[in-house]
Structure formats: C-alpha cells, structure tokens
Amino acid sequence: MPSDFEDRVRKTGLRLYDIAEKSKPSLFRKDYWTGKVMDVSMKNDAFKQEMFRFVDVFPYLTTPESVARHIQEYFCRPDQHFPKAMQWGLSHVTPDSMTARMAAKSISKNITTMGKQFITGATIDEAAEVLKKARDAEGVAWTVKILKEAVTSTQEEEEFLDGQINLIERYSEIVTNWPALGTGEIGGLDWGFTPQVNISLMASCLYSQYLTKSCAMDYAIDRAKERLRPIYRKAQQLGAYVMMDMEHLPARRFTLELFKGINDESEFRDWPHNGIAYQAYMKDAEPLLADLVKWAKTGGHDFGMRLIKGAFWDEEMVLANLYNYPVPVFTNKHETDASFERCAHTVLKSHRHMQLKCGSHNIRSVAYVIETARKLGVPEDRLEFQMLHGMAENLRNAWTKHDLRLRLYAPVGEIVPGMAYLVRRLLENTSSESFLRQSFVDGAAREAMLRDPASLAKDSPQTESGTPADSEYGETGPFSNEPPIEWDVATHAAFAAALENTKSSFPRHVRPVVNGVPTEGGKTLMSTDPNMPERVVAEVACADAETVEFAVAAANTAFTEWAVTPAEKRAAYLFKAAGRVRAKRHDLAALLVYEGGKNWTEAQADLNETVDFLEFYGREMIRLDKPRTASERPGESSRLGYLPRGVGGVIAPWNFALPISVGMASAAIVTGNTVVYKPASQTPAIGQAVHDIFSSVYLPNGVFNFVPGPGEEIGNALVTHKDVAFTVFTGSRQVGLGIIEKSGPTPEDAQQVKHVIAEMGGKNAIIIDSDADIDAAVGPIIQSVFGYMGQKCSAASRLIVLAENHDKFVSRFKHAVETLVFGPAEDSRSDLGAVIDAEAKAKIETYVDIGNTDGQLLTRGANAEGPGHFVRPAVFTDISPDSRLAQEEIFGPVVCIIKVDDFEEALQVANGTPYALTGGVFSRSPANIERACREFLVGSLYINRGTTGAMMKRHPFGGFKMSGVGSKAMGQYYLPQFMFTRTIVENTFRSGFAPMEAATD
Amino acid sequence: MPSDFEDRVRKTGLRLYDIAEKSKPSLFRKDYWTGKVMDVSMKNDAFKQEMFRFVDVFPYLTTPESVARHIQEYFCRPDQHFPKAMQWGLSHVTPDSMTARMAAKSISKNITTMGKQFITGATIDEAAEVLKKARDAEGVAWTVKILKEAVTSTQEEEEFLDGQINLIERYSEIVTNWPALGTGEIGGLDWGFTPQVNISLMASCLYSQYLTKSCAMDYAIDRAKERLRPIYRKAQQLGAYVMMDMEHLPARRFTLELFKGINDESEFRDWPHNGIAYQAYMKDAEPLLADLVKWAKTGGHDFGMRLIKGAFWDEEMVLANLYNYPVPVFTNKHETDASFERCAHTVLKSHRHMQLKCGSHNIRSVAYVIETARKLGVPEDRLEFQMLHGMAENLRNAWTKHDLRLRLYAPVGEIVPGMAYLVRRLLENTSSESFLRQSFVDGAAREAMLRDPASLAKDSPQTESGTPADSEYGETGPFSNEPPIEWDVATHAAFAAALENTKSSFPRHVRPVVNGVPTEGGKTLMSTDPNMPERVVAEVACADAETVEFAVAAANTAFTEWAVTPAEKRAAYLFKAAGRVRAKRHDLAALLVYEGGKNWTEAQADLNETVDFLEFYGREMIRLDKPRTASERPGESSRLGYLPRGVGGVIAPWNFALPISVGMASAAIVTGNTVVYKPASQTPAIGQAVHDIFSSVYLPNGVFNFVPGPGEEIGNALVTHKDVAFTVFTGSRQVGLGIIEKSGPTPEDAQQVKHVIAEMGGKNAIIIDSDADIDAAVGPIIQSVFGYMGQKCSAASRLIVLAENHDKFVSRFKHAVETLVFGPAEDSRSDLGAVIDAEAKAKIETYVDIGNTDGQLLTRGANAEGPGHFVRPAVFTDISPDSRLAQEEIFGPVVCIIKVDDFEEALQVANGTPYALTGGVFSRSPANIERACREFLVGSLYINRGTTGAMMKRHPFGGFKMSGVGSKAMGQYYLPQFMFTRTIVENTFRSGFAPMEAATD
To answer: How far B1 CA lies from chain A's nearest CA (Å)?
Structure first.
C-alpha cells in the first residue's frame, strides 16, 4: 500500500476517534453495577473467571437461596481473597438467611440488567421497540438473531425451524409500517437496496448431529438443507435477508458447504439476500476465501459476507491443544487485524458477487475498509457495517455520524439461552487485546492504534506456543496425542476404499505364531461381522494347551536376552510399530468395522489410541530407565532401578481389540518382559493384525507369541503355567476374578508369585446436578451411554438426575436418543449398529425385560431392521437404585435414569454398586464438584464432560472394587507394575575418602 | 592476646617461611610422576576420586593384567574425559595385550615409588636406614608406627600385640649404638629427656570388637588393657616411648578411657613416656581437654599429648550425615586452626603434667606454639614438634634450622596395609584447604597465612550445612533418620535400669482390644524369654475367629470416618506416636531384649527404626495427599488423587516385632485404612506395646484393633474375611504364599478384590570379589550374617568368594566368627544369644547336620552354655550351590562359603535360588560393580557394605521372586499400594470461556 493510502486511513481513523472519544461505552462506566464488575474483572483474572462462570450458571438458579449459595461458592471461598464489595456481604451468612436472600435478589436484578445490555428483548415483539427507537433516532438497521439453547435432537431442529419461520413472519408484520432507512419509503428497502427484515442464524441449529456426522458430511448437509430451504423460501416470500453465522472450526466446513450447496440450488441461485459470516482470525482465512470467490464468480452468485475477526478464540485454542492439532487461529492480534484487512480487500474487489458486511469495532479496521472501498470504487449498495448491540455506543455514534450504513446485531431471547452469548461478549470486552478496552479504558494512543497491522505484525511475529517440550523424555521428544482424523473428501474416499479392499480379504486365515513361526492349529473357529453375520471375517486354526506350552517356553527363552536389551532399544520397536500403525490406519480401522462392529468414528478413534499407546509407553520406559535417586550423600549413593518380571500372558478383550491389545502387550514388552498373547474369540483377525504390527518391526522371535483360540482352554493354561509370571487382562468381571483366583496358588518350581493386572467391568453413573448445563451435557452423555452400543467398560449406564433438572433433562435426552441413526457400522451415517454377537444381544434384551418390569420405558430410540445382532437402545426411568438394571453391568445400549432429591443422595446412589470404574458429574456448583472429587468412588471421575474416550497420559484409566486391580493404564504408574524394583545402595566411602573436600592441615 | 604477641608470632612465622620457601615439597614437583598425578588431581576432582580409588585397590592387584584392567575401568570409561596422558595409552587395548602389561608394570612401579614417599620401609630393619640417615644429617627423631590391616579378631589382636613387642625389642637393639640427639651420648635419651625408641599405635588394634561393644565399654576397655599392658611393660623395660594415635569419633571415648585407665594403674602411673594424640578439629576439643587436664592434675600424671588437627574429616562428615547426628568437627578451617591454638595454649600451660607434641605442618600454628611456649616459660623438655615423613621436606628443614626439636612419624609396613594411610596423606595434600598446597602450590600470600585464625574465623563464621530442607514435605519439615543411641554412662545406666524395671513387670497379661475395648480372650498362650525360657514374659488370653469377626466389624465401621479424615490429621497421630516411642525407648527396647531375644544394640536399633517408620510414613502421606497433576491445559485439568482401600489385616513377624508391626500398621492407618493387627505368637507382649503406642495417642476407636493369638486360626479368619480388603504380612515364605493363595478367591458380597503385601524370606548372598577390600568387608559381613543370630530376612547366608581372595578371606572370617561373644541378650557384652524358640533351634541344627554332610565345617565359633535356645554359629566351606544349605532359608547363624572362579560364576550362583531379597558385593572393580547392578537379581543390592540394617527413606526394602510381593517398605512407593487412585478430569471450558486471554476485537 502506498503511504498516501495509509495516511488517508489514519485521517479517517482520527475523525472516527474524534467523535467516539466524546463518550465512553456504557459497559465501562463504573457508576453502574456492570461497569464495576467489568472493572474488577479486568484487574483480577481469578475474579473474572469466577464472575463469568457465575454468570454462566445464573439463569439456571431458580431460587434466591440457590443464587446466594452459588455466590458463596464462587466468591466467598477461603482460598479466595476478592474485594469485600465483590462478596456482597455473603461470606458469613447462611444462604437461606434473610440477608442472603435479599442480596441474591439484588444481584439477580443487576445481572438481568447486565443481560439487557446485550439482549434486545425476550421476544421479537419486545425487541421491536428497541429496534424502532434506534432506527428512528440513529438511522441504524438491525439483524435479529434468536438465541437458542444447543439443538440436540430432531425435535429441537424442528422447533428451531418453526422459530425462524415465525420470526420472519412476525418481524415482517412489525416492519410493515416502518419507513425504510435512507429512502423513508414505507415498507421499502433500507438504503434502497436491502430488506428491513434481516435475520441471523447458526447452521448448527439446522442439524443437531452435524458434529458426529463429520464422516458423513453429504448426509449431514442434506439434512440441514431440508431445514434451511423452508427458511430461505419464507425469506424470499416475505422479502427478508438471511445471514448465516459462523461458529467454531468443527462447524466451519459444514457451514460453508451448506451455504454453497443451497446457493447452488436453482431456486436460490439468483437470490442476493443471503449471506454468511467469515472469520478473519483463521490462519487459512485467505486461501479459503480465494476458493469462495472463485466459486462465487464461477456460479455467478451474489451474497453477503459478514467479515468478522472471530469470537471463538479461546475455544479454538483449547480444542487444538486438547486434540493436538495445529492452532488454527492467529495468536498474534496484529496478524488477525492484518488478515481482516486482506480479506476485506479481497471481498471489496469481488463486490460484483459479494456484499461486504464489515463487522468490526476496531476504528483502524473500519477506516481501512472505508478507504479501500473508496479506492476500489465499490458501489454504496455493496458495503455495510455491522456492530453488536450493547457493545460500544460511542462507536455506533461515530459510524453513523460518518454516514456509514450501520446494522446492529440484535439477539432476542430468554436469559437462559442468552447467557452463553452474554459471557462471550463480556469476554471480548475485558480481553486485554480488545480494541475497545485498549482505546477507551486503558487509554492507548490513537496513533498507535491506527498503525498498519501488517507492519506491526512484522515487528512482533506470530509465535507458536504449541506443547512445551517435555524434558522428561529427553531426546525422544515430548509425547503428544495423535491428532484425530480430519474427515475431508480425501480421507473419506481413502477409508471407503479401505473398507472395500478389506472386505475382499475375507475370510482371513488366522493361526498361532510361536517364536516367529506359524504353527499348526487345532480346532477351527470362525469370526463374523456382527452387522452381517453371514460375512465370515476369519477362520481360525486354534491354539490349544500344547501350543501354550510351546509359546511359554519360547517366551521364557527369549526373556533372557530381551530382559537385558537396553530400554531405549526396546522403546524403539514401539516407535517403529507406531509408524507402522499410522501407515496402515485405514486398513486397520476397516478391520475394526467388520470384525468389531465399530462405526467409522469409533474405529478411527481406536487407531489413534493404538498409536498413542505405543508412543507413550515407549517414552515412559525411557523415562523410567533413568535410575531414580533415593538419596545421594557424601559416602553413600542410593538409587532405585527397574527390572522385568518374566513371561506375561496377555488376554485381550474384543471391544477395544486393537488398542487395548497393543497397549497391554507393548507395556509388557517395553518393560523387558516377553509375551504370550491371546486375542478374544470374537476378534481373532484383529489379534492377527496385532501380531503383524509387532512382527513387521522385526521384534526378536519369542518376545511376542500369538495364540488365538477359545478362552477357557488357552486362558487357563496360560494363567496357571508355572513359568508365566504375570497375566494382564481386560474383560469381564467373572473372567477377571477367575484369573485372579487361579493366580493365587504358586505352582511348585515357579520362579515367582503370580501377578495379575486386570481391568474388569463397570456400572458407571453420571450425576446431573440441579444447576448442570443441559446444553453442554446431552451430547457427551449420549456419547458416553451409546458410543459403540454401550460396549465399553467406561460406558455410562446410570444417569442420576437431581429432581430440579429431571424432567427437562429427560425430555431432551429422550429426543436426542431418538435422533440417533441406526445402521450397519460400515455405513458412515450409522450412530448405532449391531452388538458383538447373538449371545450379547440375548443378554441385553434380558435386561430390557427387567427394565420393563422394574421401571418405565422412556424410549427405544430408532428402529433397527437388518441381519445384524441389532439391539435398539433402551432408556428407562423410575428405576430403583437396587434394581438389577441399576446394579449389573449390561454392556449394551441400555441406560436407566434415577431421580434423586439432592447431591448427597446422588453420590450415595452413584457409589452403591460393586463397581468403581468411571463416573461423571455435570454441575456448576464448585462445592458439589469438590465434594464429588472427595466422595465419588471411581477410578476416573469426569467433570462436565463425557465419561468415555480417555486420552493417553492425560487421563490415566482404571478402576477398583470389582472394576479391576492394578495401576491405571495410559498413565505414568502403569509400566512400573510390569517390573520389579531394585534398590542399589553403594558405600562410596573408601579408605577415608569420599567425594568431598577435606579440612585438615 | 596483645598485639605485640601477634607480631612476634608473625615474625617467627616469616622466619620459618624464609627457610621453607627456598624449596618446594617433592610431592608437588611436576618432574616426578607423583607430582604430575598430584597436579592433575588438584585440578580435576573426578580424576582425583578415580586416582585415589585406584591407589586404594592397587595393592590387591596381583597381575599386570589385573592392574591394566583396573586402570581401564577407572580411567578409560566412555563417560570420562581425562587427559590422554592420564589414560596411559590403555583406552583402546585389551588388558592382556603386551602394551597393556607394559604400561601396567610401569604404573605399578610409579605407585610403589609414591608409596615410598610416605612409608619408610617394609620392616623396622628396612626403615632403620632411613631413620638413621635423617637423625645424622638433620638431627630429627622418629616415632615408628607399624601399618596394619584392620584387626578383626582375637587372633589378629594377638598378632598385633606380638608385632608391637617385636618392634620395641628390635628397634631397641637397632638404636643401641646410635648417639642421642642433643647430647651425642650413645644409647642416651634424645635431647636429654626422651627415649630414642618411640612407637605409635592405634587403640582399635588392641581390641577388635571395640566398635560393636560400645554398649559394654568397661568390658571393651578391660579387653584392650590386657593387650596394652604387655606393650607398656616392654617399653618400660627397654626404655621406649609409646604414643597412642587417635582415630575417628566412634573410637574416641574408647581410646581416651583406655588411656586414662591404664595410666591410673599403679605400675604406669609415674611413667612419663607415654602419650596420646588429640584432635583439635573436634568441636568439643576444648571442654574435653579441660577434663583431661583436670584428670592429669588430680592424678599427678605426666604424659605426652600429640596435638593435631585431625585426619578423619571426610569420614566424620560422612558418618554424621549418614547416621544423622550433629557434625562433630569444625567445617571452617579457621575454626580448626583457632581451636588448635587454644588447645596448644592449654597444654602448654599444663606443662607440668603434659608434654606438648605439636603435630602440624602449618607455619602459623607452629609459630604460635613457639611464641606461646616462650611466653609461658615452658621448659625445653616439655615441648617437641612432630611431622609426617614425606610430607614437606622444606618445612622439616625450616623447623630444624629454627632449632625446634622435631620428630618424624615413620610408618613401617607392606604396601597392602599401607594404602589406606597413603590415600589419607594424598588427600591431605591435595585438599584445597591444605596449608602446604595453599603456600607452596597455590602461592598464597605469607602475611595472609600468618593471620590470627581466631579473627579470621570471626570474619567467616562456621556454617552448619546439615540436611537440606526437603520441600517435599512442606511445613512438616524434612525427614531425617533418628540418630543412633550414644552409649555413654548415662544411657548405659538408664537402659540397665529399664531392663531391671521391665523384668519386674513379668508376666504381663495380654488380651485382645477391639474398638478400644479390651475383650475376653479364649485359650491361653505364653511367651517366654528365649535366653531364659523359664522366664514367662506374657500370658495371653487369645483372640479367636469370633474376636476377628468383631474386630473386622469395628474396623469396617470406623473406616467410614477415618477414610475421610484429612491426611494431615492422620499423619499427626503418627508424629505423636513417634514422640511416645522416643519417650519410652528404653522400656520398649528392654521388652525386645526379653521377649525377642535382641541384644542391646539390636534392640536399640529397632527403636530407631520404629520412630523412623512413624516419622517417614506420616510425611509421605502428607506428600501424597497433594493431588498430582497429570496434565493442566487451557480447558482441561487432570489430576490424580489417592483413596484408602478399607479394612486391612496386619500380620506381624516376631523378628522385628516392634518396628515392622508399627511400620505396617502405621502405613495402613495413615493412608486412611483401618486395621486388625495380629502379632506373632512368640511376641504378644511386644504386640501389646504396639497397641499401647497407638492407643496412647488417642487414635479413634476401631482404627487399630488388636487380636493376639495363634496364627492358623486368627490369620486365616482375617485373610479370608469378606470385609478385609487387604493383608499386609511379613513372615515366612510358606505362610506368605498361603495368604496369597487364600486371598485369590473373591468372597461373595466382597466390596473388592483382595490385595496382599507380603515380605517373605531370603537366601541372601554376598559376593567377595578378587579385589575386595577384606579389611572393610569382614566386619559388615559378620554383622550381616550373625546380627540377631541370623534371624533377619535380610541376613546373608551365602558368601560367594572369588578364588583369588578365598583363602585369605576364609581365614580372617573364621577368626572373626570365633571372636564373637556368646551370652544372654540382657548382658550388654553378648554378640550372640538364643534363637527365638526351641523349634527354631531344632530346625537350625538340622541344617548344621546337612552342612556337615554336604561340606566342611569351618568353625562353630564361641561356646554356648546356658538355659536359652542357644545355637552356636556355624560356617561351612566347600558347599555346592545346589546344597539345601545353599538353597533354603535357615533363619539362624549358619552360613556357607562358596568358592567361584570368576565374577560371572559368582553372579550365577548368587541368582540361583528361589529368592531375591538382599545381596551384597564387595568389589573395587567399577566394571564388576556395574555388572552386578544390572544382573544381580535382588530387591536390595548393597555394594561395599553390609546387607542388613536398611535405613528409612534411603534404603527402600523388599524383594521379589519368593521373597515377597508389593512395593518396597521404607520407600516412597510403599504407601501408594495401600490406596486406590482416582483420576479427576475436569472440563474447565464453559460457554466459550477458559482461563486464558481472548484475541478478538
């Protein structure tokens, strides 16, 4: 850009500043309650966090007592030292005291006022007054957005659709007599080119399952289009404008494809009154915009683009960090601003096809757009400015005084769905990088704020924070979880091809491999596709007791050398195996689909977990191999080291046949033990794949031996063998307890006492507190209960709901269950499918019968027709905690809902089974969360998230009571149990000499 | 001191410097091999350490190949980067190559030369030449000291005695025709007042057991006097002078009392020609000297005092640090110098009774003594100066030129016993605080070196390093081991009284205590004193299965509250209990003597361990209670916490009835479990004492329940009870395996799978390498084998000796065993006594029979007569590793010696039993030590020290194979096994808000 352009931008900016600086945004005025709160929040991060969390839960609090109690929990804890004024006199009273209730009422009022700052009204009619007033007084237009709780079911999609249709209809009625802006014509187009009625909506409300259907994108878009068409038609019919909001990254592709798809439909192709929001803070904002421009030009489209910087920065950072993909947003504010300008330039240049809706509160950005539009000669009707209601009255004034066409974003709705919106706005305003805060609170110099962000970005370039280097693993580098598969056109096609390919390899021939040599098997066993039992996946020539004898002998022989192979070298085999798994991920995942009955998502997730096990345990062994010092003093060194146990029997389950097999075996191997591995009878082909992984990296013969076959015979021979030092098992309680019992006696001539590591069952509960955020709870709970048809030991099978939230939760949950799609696992659309075999199906149906006797059937969800071992999901209410349904592990898509009066009872019920594996709590009460952390007796407690899908290293996994024995898998205490420890105490003092200085003559 | 005195000291010092500075001590002359080595040592601490260690082992190396191999192991390791010249071309050759052997020979020659620097000759006749030459040329006198390996047996005491007598006789013959110094009179007194024949000796050589007899000091001194009298008589008879050296602190009281005692005997009372060395670096040097002066004046004694600064500084620091008592020496060099001057002043003032032998190489110290003597008018015959041969020829010159009466210390002996002496001298000279090094190598300014040390000390006061604060335990403060009891007159009397007192409490009445209430017992059981079986220690009203039922119920009820009692509060009970144990230590130790048959030393050591368990586990729980973070990221917090298991059965052994009971029970309790405790049948009164300790600190009722009685009935009921979550056991393999087997089945209705922590037996071996320092090995091995009659699971019962060292070791070991004192435990003199009961005795004698059949009896040690269950120690040689004697745990004073050809075979034999508990290696080969660290399969490997007496925190203890299951006691991984872990994963992301800064507008 030439510098005279920069100068014009600067001058325009200064003019805008001149007007704006005459007043301060009301949000920051400390004579108001909101202003005070904002003030403290900006100064005190801890307070800000508690405040915004309190605001988040506030709408759920139905009584003054409950409000008072939450205030105490958020602001009056002994570990906090907040300003007295911000404890509202509640630190030393009981929540039901008169004082407390009075304070609660007053605070409630203030928060409601705070809400009104941003939310124009509970209904369009209520909002209309605000809209009209501002139109008349300031000449601003509006876009109306209905605030909505998360849409979690087909029923809620329908409600949403109805709401949008109603909005367009009612809003159109309201504006009938309003003069158009610019022209004054009654009922005419504002400024002569754009409808008075303008609504904004979120694509995610159109199809509740868009997120879990990322592997079936076409299907998801089709579903969404079905909802969107009526809205577009209504808008066309009544002359309204529809703007699609942009959400977080996981929704972006869905939203963009949906937008393009519907605009490609002939009935909407020529309709200019629709648009889409676009976020400039994405690192790929520019290339993606280029594609969009190309599409628009090629198709001859005309649509609006609301260019914004983006409001999900926190969330993008969090998600990228948690799931370990590159941070998708600029982390340097100047980069974001520069990207905004570049995108604006592109859109303005493409003004024949795109109307720019400039959505920024940043004077520099706006000045840039004004001057660029002028330079490029953009016609008036191709550019408007947008701003959020309640954000910056002084800028609004500056924009309109400057004759910019300004549209305000008007959220309409109740406070409950509005709170998430409110919190986002508060966050934006209090961020230290906020233009408003910097300019009008912190008093930054205008000139500095008006500088070209591109040059500023050059001065302070983007830095990638990324994962901090874990020094614990030394040169091997930090551990990071494998990033989840990104379902785009290419990966979708690759996996579809792998499914085809894999199918053609059936039936596979599986037989034992001992000491690297395939051996003759005995009887034959078949494995079949649970979703299509006629499909034989594998024919197994089974191992028998004699094979086990050979295998143990081979493992015992191999142990001698393997035990003293350096840890780094052993770990290197695991890292190589990880690479192998990555390279073959689609083929392996396809096998999981056919033999395990996993759907696309679950199958791919298993692959990630498999890689993670190998990468993590390899690193852990390297860490553990460094001897730890117990004490180091002059004259004595004392350290602890590890040594392997011997031959281990690895007995694997069918439900996570690949990752758990690899996890258990690799842990045993990397710690220097040798292994005899028996896969589950249901999944021998996957077992063979496990063997192939290890043999493909040339693990020395005898270190890993493969003995497929029936559990009773092989398992027994293995567990009780005198030379088997330990058994590591994952499976049912019954089999697990049997192994433990059989491992009790020490055989004559055994070299050691047998050791057992066993992961067994669970009867996992999730507590839904009275203040739980149901929006945030339904999705994760559905996943926890019905993921892989509930065939996970971590699956939730009891939902304990506080009475206050019960009916609301039950209703939303029911509809969500009914929204799930039933079908064979190989169909990318399927949420639910077959259970593992006919026996499992029969057992599950028995429990459904019990449920029908002991309680009320709420729903059995979708219909399920087909040849597979299909079981329809079943949800029961009115179940007593003592019912077999609430006590026994079902291992299927059956869940009971138990209503309780208070949190105490919830914990009692939760703890009242023989199991202690996983547990969940959805709550926004700090006190209840803390109590659950103390009293909820489970191996893994999950707070405000689902109870399945534990991630390596971050979520060490394992239970107690009847759920298992041993240290948690996936964590840093897992490997040590595969080893003995040795203390080495060395007297380093010799002949009067220790490594220290003497003090004699 | 007036400053004109200081000025005179300064001037005298400068005069001495003038003479001294004309040459450099030969030790530091880099044109010699020794000088080069000293030079590199002073610059490179790592090299110095390896060099001195190599010098230490060198005399044991009998072949050039072995020398070459050791040089490679010490100087050519890949982790070292020593100067090429200091690798002597050995880094890339095999030790048996011609090059290597040539280099080895050359180095051997150089080291021998280095030895000759300090050692005047191998015999007195060889030394006489050196002595005579210096007398004639320089006018210096000599004191001759026979270098001796450590004296480890009566036989060696006798050899030592003979050696001293011979020395005096032969030395006297040699000097017959020597002219006396000063007078020139043939055979006359040197300088007219002191014998020409002057010897120095160490008190520790007079009685080999002085160290282990610190609780029987009178006895030890009597034994030493029996050896000393003939020496004194011979000296009187032949007109010689006898000086007693001073050793490390543990020998000081013995040496001083011996010296005073013999001087109080009428035949020596008036004999002035004996003296004692006195160390000024001890913090209590002054008060103790005052006592000595008082004694001398009162008794009218006349004796010499060789005042030195002290040569055991390293060792004193190490010992104080390892056993956790205050550092006894000054750690600031100036303080030591100042203390020397004050002591010298005192001795000079007392010159009527004490002749000062000023033993310093420090010019300032000597100048101070010269001027003080002058000032106090000390007669010539009351002052002489002493110096070490080989240390500082230039000072020697200065002293004599200054007309000081100088005596040189002349070590005489072979290189093997001389190496420890040599290393001490090398250390002194290379110390950065050495006067010689500072003055003649580092070139310190004379004036600075001559300043008054008292004023210098004031400028840089003494700092106590002490144990660094362990932040791991936060406010509770660091853990430190209880310091061992110091046996002085007061503690001896106190314990003797406690023994009397305790005896009078017998028979004690023991009965079960459940839920804080003593209950009716069933059948009666007696415990008796193993050393006097007629003495009934306790009458027990035994618990039965019904009592167990009550006790488990009480513990189960108490668990609910105890489990949620804060960890710090639980730990506080342990700390209180520790205080209680400290307060009652003598009474408790007395009970161990009578019921457990422990001797004084072992009984008191048990008390220390008891206190340590309480203090350490209390702190450990506080440490573990802080939740550990598995990961903390924006949006997610993941942490691990602990929770207790439930009711634990604690089944205790009789051998460490107090500490192990307290250790197991306190671990279970502090982790939040409740306990039913069954003591061993042999030690119910000690069990009751354990109960009393916990009840005296008001542990809530039901947390600790006491059920004394027979193992079969009670143990069984306890282990298999459905409400007993875990058993923690220490005892025999047979019982332990039984408990593990019985804990296998999970009872109907049990809340969890049973967990067992079991410490069982051992068949522990010590390897004595071909280069092992036998001097340093015999004592610790005797203690490891015969401590508490071998009734420790850690006791060594196999000695695997490399052929090269076999005969020498066997001979010294035999004599050492025969020196041990047999007698009842209550007699402070007893090393050995009864085994626990008649059954044990019978079993041990069976193994003696096996030994007689399978091998050669080496010795059965001392005689053992009396009513106790006495078993004489038994040592067998020529035992095959497969013999039952070498395979089965005997748990008594029986040991077999197995001869092996090489280290590989040694390890094979060591690993060739079903046990893996403790093991030891005595070796000075870095490569063999490293190999043992990798390949010796034991829970606790001890290098160059005994295998028993593990210390809390520093020596985590526990074995594998048939030696036990579970994590090591005394270490940081012990408590976690008493608990389950809980992962708590919290989604901290709410409504777009995570605790981080946003980057939007």
So the answer is: 23
